[in-house]
Design brief:
- The chain has 236 residues and is α+β, with helices and mostly antiparallel strands.
- The chain folds into 2 domains: 135 residues, ACT domain (Alpha-Beta Plaits, 2-Layer Sandwich); 79 residues, D-Maltodextrin-Binding Protein, domain 2 (3-Layer(aba) Sandwich), CATH 3.40.190.10.
- The chain is elongated and about 65 Å long.
- The strands form 3 sheets. Strands 6-5-7-4-8 form a 5-stranded mixed sheet.
- The two termini are 26 Å apart.
- The longest helix has 14 residues.
- It has 7 helices and 13 strands.
- It is 27% helix and 36% strand.
């Protein structure tokens, strides 16, 4: 984010695929803060150029995370070559611009409307209970001005690293429990250039701001690195 937008929406976890792991790295690397959270029911469609028949298709494109949510459909149609693309809607834009009559994209229905394409099949996702959790992120300088209105934060995301010795992770988690916060998610990501070293990402819920402050203080006394990624009103 270079200051040209007030905020951005970042998918962080899908109920079928799991975490979008590389996005955790971005949250740690860039000077942004999580200021909101939302859940969106995800529906995927097979979208092609108008007039294209299913029997014309030889290839299907979409974002890797979307492809992972449609494994049953892809397994049932092994005659289709599967290709990763940078974006779900972008795959539809690409096939329309390139006039690809043997290619379909897997994307939400809005992509068909936006680019003048045609939906060949709906409901490609493996399960109807398919939700993606998104974070609303803002530059640190603007993060005090929540775009979602005057809501009371009840959730906090953190990143921390610890010494590589027995018991340090267990102790860190015990410190969170003693601070009175509820651990709802933990994710680990490797540290580039340091084999078998990890950064841990956690989401915690808290009833009072003092509990969040106590958790931060306890971790900072115990860990090599602690970064608060944001406080916001949680929905998951």
């Amino acid at each position: 984010m270079q200051g040209t937008v007030a905020a951005a929406v970042l998918p962080i976890e899908n109920s079928l695929h799991g975490s979008v792991a590389e996005h955790y790295d971005l949250l740690l690397e860039h000077p942004v803060a999580i200021t909101g959270e939302s859940l969106l029911r995800i529906r995927f469609n097979l979208i092609a150029m108008p007039g294209t028949r299913f029997s014309d298709l030889r290839r299907v494109l979409s974002h890797p995370v979307a492809l992972a949510q449609c494994r049953r459909f892809l397994a049932a149609h092994r005659e289709l070559e599967v290709g990763p693309f940078y974006d779900t809607a972008g795959s539809v834009k690409h096939l329309m611009e390139s006039q690809l009559r043997d290619t379909a994209g897997i994307a939400p229905s809005l992509a068909a409307t936006q680019y003048g394409a045609e939906i060949l099949q709906t409901g490609l996702e493996d399960h109807t209970q398919n939700f993606t959790r998104f974070h609303l992120i803002q530059p640190l300088a603007a993060s005090a001005d929540l775009l979602l209105g005057p809501q009371v934060p009840n959730k906090m995301s953190l990143a921390f690293s610890i010494d590589h010795r027995p018991g340090t992770l267990v102790e860190a988690l015990q410190l969170l429990a003693r601070a009175g916060v509820d651990l709802t998610k933990i994710e680990s990501r490797p540290v580039p250039g340091s084999p078998w070293e990890y950064v841990f990402y956690v989401d915690v819920r808290f009833a009072e701001a003092t509990h969040a402050e106590a958790a931060l203080a306890a971790l900072r006394a115990h860990c090599r690195m602690v970064k608060e990624l944001g406080r916001y009103t949680g929905h998951a």
